[in-house]
Design a protein that fits this description.
The chain has 235 residues and is α/β, with parallel strands linked by helices. The protein has helices at 14-27, 35-42, 53-63, 71-74, 98-103, 109-121, 148-165, 175-182, 188-191, 209-214, 219-234; strands spanning 4-7, 30-33, 82-83, 89-93, 130-134, 169-173, 196-198, 201-206. It contains eleven helices and eight strands. Strand 7 and strand 8 (201-206) form a beta hairpin. The structure holds iron/sulfur cluster.
Length: 235
């Protein structure tokens, strides 16, 4: 494994300091990590801005080197999630794609920009009242659908994120995210326009923004879904 040698810098936030102190106690003043690990340790989400921040950050650090399933070996970056740690609205996709894997952030690129536009249309903003994550934290090769064995290992991380954030509403983006969370292998249209329960939190399912880029016919039903989301959150 290619190694980077990095001096421990004790100016990071409290959670990272704690993590590094544990390493220092074990291995001394020099920290040997892979490039993947170094990027994850340095990647301090700058959109976390409330009292829940440290708790969520501690959790991210505790799992960012996960190797529980084979995707840990093939990822470029672990993609934890991004946004407001006290968000009312949590958006959940299936897994990181190529751009997300490269950047370590969910929903970037054209689909991410479209998602930001949709949020703006309901007076929401990534990072302000909104948290975005995926069921899987690592990219499946060639963007294939998550395997049940991968979901089994990774979904508990999402459940714990939800417990910490306590959103009022979860919106699953796309059929794969919907069927994975709801354990329902049905077409997306059968999951839409219903309020489901996901570990005690209301959950709706709508189209993935990438699907809107491929087929503009999905724009109208998606807009209907997000109007419902807006009204739900405003009540
Ligand atoms: S996909 Fe999830 S379970 Fe698999 S290695 Fe990544 S974080 Fe761990």
């Amino acid at each position: 494994m290619e190694k980077n040698k990095s001096r421990i810098i004790m100016g990071a936030n409290t959670a990272i300091q704690t993590y590094l102190r544990q390493y220092q106690a074990l291995f001394g003043n020099e920290l040997y990590v892979s490039k993947d690990q170094a990027k994850n340790l340095d990647q301090t989400p700058n959109t976390l801005d409330s009292g829940n921040r440290d708790d969520l950050e501690q959790f991210r650090i505790s799992i960012c080197l996960c190797q529980e399933c084979p995707l840990g070996k093939t990822r470029t970056n672990f993609v934890f999630g991004v946004g407001d740690p006290n968000a009312d609205l949590m958006l959940v996709g299936e897994a990181p794609g190529e751009q997300e894997d490269l950047k370590g952030e969910p929903f970037v690129g054209r689909a991410g920009k479209l998602l930001d536009d949709i949020l703006r249309a309901i007076q929401k903003k990534r990072g302000q009242g909104v948290y975005i994550a995926n069921v899987l934290k690592c990219r499946p090769p060639n963007n294939r659908d998550p395997l049940p064995s991968e979901v089994e290992k990774c979904e508990p991380y999402l459940v714990k994120q939800i417990e910490k954030i306590q959103p009022r509403l979860i919106v699953a983006l796309g059929r794969v995210a919907g069927k994975t969370l709801l354990k329902m292998d049905v077409p997306l249209k059968e999951m839409r326009e219903k309020t489901h329960d996901y570990h005690g939190t209301p959950l709706r399912v709508t189209y993935h923004p990438a699907a809107l880029l491929r087929n503009s016919n999905f724009k109208k039903p998606t807009w209907d879904d997000f109007q419902w989301v807006r009204d739900f959150l405003n009540n």
